[in-house]
Design goal:
Structural class: alpha/beta
CATH superfamily of the largest domain: NIF3 (NGG1p interacting factor 3)-like
Strand order of the largest sheet: 5-6-8-9-10-7
Distance between the termini: 36 Å
Order of helices and strands: HEEHEHEHHEEHEEHEHEHHE
Strand content: 15-25%
Number of strands: 11
């Protein structure tokens, strides 16, 4: 299919122009390759990922974390290397950050909600005006059992803070960097909170508020959205997609 046809569809489906973000999203690098048949999927952009995508003859790399954030940057150094690789191999780059966290069908948090059986879902945490996280009731499950399910489904090794009750009834989810939202999750009635990365400073929030927190990894919690989007594009347009797994252990 023609690149512009795909870009127009993605921009509309993901509401790229409506959802504010920390940098420009959507098509970030346009090459002279106008025909899109093979779409590589990844969480991030790196030379290793680009080389793997090129070996597969990808026409586009669709990622969660693109290469442009905040102020304009010179296309030099590490950034320049990435752009040169894309140009050399004809790989167009499309990024969907907060729009992929927030999407109600194939977004990271929507997929995680379905994965772990949330019911009566509410959306929360809107740092740029659009709610990204989900919270809902779950069938009662022991925290240890839920943590094992998270590890299995996301192929990760979670860090669990068991500072609350043994049985989980209401679960809040926020993919990626959400460790500082423990109190907000508590105020939504959650007894357990699933998010991505953490640090030493966040232990005491869980302890102080009596919350269970499952830190499953920033990377692991954000693999599900691009995979779901890839499946959607395969069904919609018959393109071929492949997820390139480059875990950061973070």
């Amino acid at each position: 299919m023609e690149r512009q046809q795909l870009i127009t569809y993605l921009d509309n489906y993901l509401q790229i122009n409506e959802i504010k973000d920390y940098g420009p999203q959507g098509l970030q690098v346009e090459t002279d390759n106008n025909e899109i048949q093979k779409i590589a999927l990844a969480v991030d952009v790196s030379p290793a990922i680009l080389n793997a995508a090129a070996a597969w003859d990808a026409d586009m790399l669709l990622v969660h974390h693109g290469i442009f954030w905040g102020k304009q940057q010179p296309i030099a150094g590490a950034l320049g290397e990435r752009v040169r690789l894309m140009m050399r191999h004809g790989i167009n780059l499309y990024a969907s950050h907060l729009s992929l966290d927030a999407h109600t069908e194939i977004g990271n948090n929507a997929v995680l909600a379905e994965m772990f059986g949330l019911e009566e879902i509410e959306w929360w945490f809107a740092p740029m005006g659009t709610a990204l996280g989900v919270v809902g009731n779950v069938r009662p499950v022991k925290l240890k059992t839920l943590a094992k399910q998270v590890n299995k489904h996301l192929d990760t090794t979670s860090q669990v803070l068991d500072c609350g009750e043994e049985v989980v009834f209401r679960l809040a989810i926020l993919s990626g960097a959400g460790a500082d939202q423990v109190l907000a999750a508590k105020e939504l009635g959650a007894d357990t909170y699933l998010t991505g990365e953490t640090s030493h400073a966040h232990y005491w929030q869980a302890a102080d508020y009596g919350m269970n927190v499952i830190f499953a990894g920033h990377y692991a919690t954000e693999t599900v959205g691009v995979k779901a989007l890839g499946s959607h594009l395969e069904q919609q347009f018959g393109v071929e997609t492949r997820f390139f797994d480059f875990p950061t252990q973070m």
